[in-house]
Structure formats: structure tokens, C-alpha cells
Amino acid sequence: MAKPERLTSASWAEASRLKLxxxxxxxLGVGILLGLAQFVIPxxxxxxxxxxxxxxxYLSLRPHLVxxxxxxTIPFTDRVRVLPISFSLNELVLLYCVVLCLVHMxxxxxxxxxxxxxxxxxxxxxLVYFLAGFFSASDTGLLGFSKVFEAFIFxxxxxxxxxxxxxxxxxxxxxxxxxxxxxxxxxxxQSVTGIGSDFQSSRGYLGYLGLGSNMVxxxxxxxxxxxxLGNYLATNVAMFLxxxxxxxxxxxxxxxxATILMLGIVTTYSxxxxxGLSAAVIxxxxxxxxxxxxxxxxxxxxxxxxxxxxVSFFGNSxxxxxxxxxxRLIIWQVPMAAIMRNTKTLWLGSGINSYxxxxxxxxxxxxxxxxxxxWFAHNFYLLTVEEMGLVGAxxxxxxxxxxxxxxxxKFRQCHGFQRMYGLSISTAMIAxxxxxxxxxxxxxxxxxxxxxxxxxxxxxxxxxxxxxRQRTA
Length: 473
Fold this sequence. Notes:
Blueprint: H1 9-37, H2 43-60, H3 63-72, E1 79-82, E2 85-88, H4 89-107, H5 119-134, H6 141-163, H7 169-193, E3 200-201, H8 205-208, E4 216-217, H9 226-246, H10 251-266, H11 271-287, H12 292-315, H13 326-339, H14 343-347, H15 355-358, H16 380-413, H17 416-435, H18 445-459
Antiparallel strand pairs: 1-2, 3-4
């Protein structure tokens, strides 16, 4: 058998020159193509394309950064409509993240155990939402189901990144915190300057204290409505509340962050968000204390020093006119009429995205058509019954109640992060229950993605010892 020929220094030099000419020819060809392209495409578009391609390659090699970007873009709720389909920036990034996960799993031959214990609930919810989409009175019912299904997919994307140890729960929480802080800071800026805000009203708290004007701009961040930003921030604060008291070591730094988040909520001037946050704080003070006596002391102190003075002062001021429930009661009669049309709509609902088809005909005749959007449900419970009936609503809210109870169980029985974060989920659920009385934020696809991201951090492991179970090739 002939021995392989050994490469001499001359051979190496010749091979290097050949390789150099190949690379040089490649770059020369690309340069010529780009030069010719400038006669057809503006140079700034070419530069933007090159930068975008470079960024795409960079992110494709680092999928965990795309995962972080998905979390950061959750509050970007503005949608682009192409014919019957609408999508947001977050949905595009989420799709990119899912594709990267699948590609990397195939290339690395990874085997990940995706079981978390929530599978029975997720299968049941998938079935309920699919039927509500398939039999919807709207042509976009199945599209609505697909947007709900995004949250379930992102739940398992979160499980994938955690179990393959590409990210940690602490890192995810940091991204969540900085996302909330950036939204709060933007909302504060919008409220103070009016730049970027699209709604002004006489809800200025300081104005009723004689420290300024009653007219204020509502901060909304990158969300489409100030209530959406307020509910998003209130849920974040409720979730971080147990972690702040029991896990954060740098209390002063954490206090500054909490102040920014609170100012962000206040400058949205969303009363539903304040209601939800107040309920979450009372719940946390009640269940986190070791004895019933201490729980009563803390709760009564909070109510007596914060809630009661605020209600007493603003309840006797002109501000109460801006929080009158009469308008809400009139609006709620519209979805109620749609729900009570017949037995079928009462028990099984009218389907996802059906509100415009079945509820708008019940809007009073004196309301102009361009104001119909302002007559949306403003109550997530009514919206759920309208879309999925009493049966679907019972299943969904049983699931949310299960999360609250299971979080409390983990707080009582588990240890370490699992214990504190179980209480975080329960507290966040309480906030969601109360903000849903006067708003329908949880019905939005982006908010479901946010909630299921939080759930992924808790249910990434089923055991109570805090040890993750992972099997990777």
C-alpha cells in the first residue's frame, strides 16, 4: 500500500496561495455585485441588508439571545395586518426562536424531557381553544386559536432552554426585570412629556392634592393601551414581590427598581392595575407571615395606612367621576346580551374573535361606528364566557385557580427558589384575577405568552427537591 505523500513547505505555500486567490476572488466577486447593485438599489438599503444578514448569522449561532429578545419584545403589541393575518414583532421573534430551537436540537441530536406536570391542563386548554376557534362565528377564529397556541409553544421553548442549561432561571428573571423597567421608564417619560402618549384625561393624582394640573397624559410604553402597560407592570411587581423580600440581597438597588416600576404603574393612571396590585400585596402579606396574628397586623396596617386614606380622599374628590362604574355597567350589558342570546352561546360561547360579530349589534344606537372599539368587553370574565361559554370559562379559570393553589402548596412544602417562586406565581395570579374585573388584558396573545413564560420557570422540574431532571445527548 502506497504511503501518503508528505506536504513540503513549498507545497504548503502553493496551497496557501491558491486558498488566498480563492478568497480574494470571492470577495472581488461580491464587491463587483454590490457595486452593480447600487445602480438598482440605494446604497443604504444594501448596507442595511448586510448588517441584517450579519446580525441574523450572529443570533442564529446564539439562540439563547433570541430567547432573551423574545422576552424583551413581549410588550411590543402593535400589530401589522396582511390581509386576514396580523402579527406583532414579538410573534416574529418567537417564530424565529422556535425555528432555531428545532434546528439546534436536530444538529446537536439533543433529547430533552419536556414533561412538566402541566400536560393534562395544556391538552385540555388546547382542545377548548381549538373548538372555540373552529366553531367561531368569526372567520378568524382559528387564527385566534393559533395565537393562543403560541403561548403554549413558548412554554416549552422556555423548558428547552432551561433544561439544556443555555439559560438559568436567574438570568431569565433579570431579563424580565429589565424589560419591565424599560417599559416603566418609557411610560413615565410619555406621561411627563406627552411624547408617545395617545390619551389624556383628568386623572392626575397630584392635581387633586393641589400640586399641579388634573389633566395628565397616560403612559403606555410600547403597548397599545395604558391599561395594558399598567396590568403588565402590576403583574411583574406582584411576581417579584416575594423574591424582593426573601431572595434579593441588594435591597437598596432593588428598592430603586421597585420605585421605577411603581411610578410606571402610577403614570399609566390605570385604576384596574392599582386594584390588582393592592389585592396582590394584601394576599402576599396575608400568606407570607408565619402566624395568623401577624398576617392580620400586616394586612390591617397596609389597608389602614395606604388603601383607606387613598379611597377616602379620592372618593370625595372629582376624581371619583373618572372611575364611575355606571359606564362600565352599560358596556357590560353588551357582552351579557351576546352571551344570553340562546342556550348554546351561554354554555359553549360564540367562539374566539367573535365579539365584533355577535356583541357589536347590541351596542346602543347613539354610539357612532368609529367608537365601537371602545365598547369592547372591559372584563375578561365576560369576554371568556362570550367566546367559550360557561364550560370553557370554567375550565380556564379552574386552571388559573389551580396555579394559585399549587403555588401556595409549593410555598408550604418546597425549599429554596421553588418555595419563593411558588408564592410569586400565586401572587401574580391574584393580580390577574383582579385586573381582569375591569379589563381584558389576559385575553391578549402577548399577555398569555408572558404568563406561560412565568409558569415555565416554576414547572421546569416536577420534583420538590429543586433538582432539575435533564437528559441531553
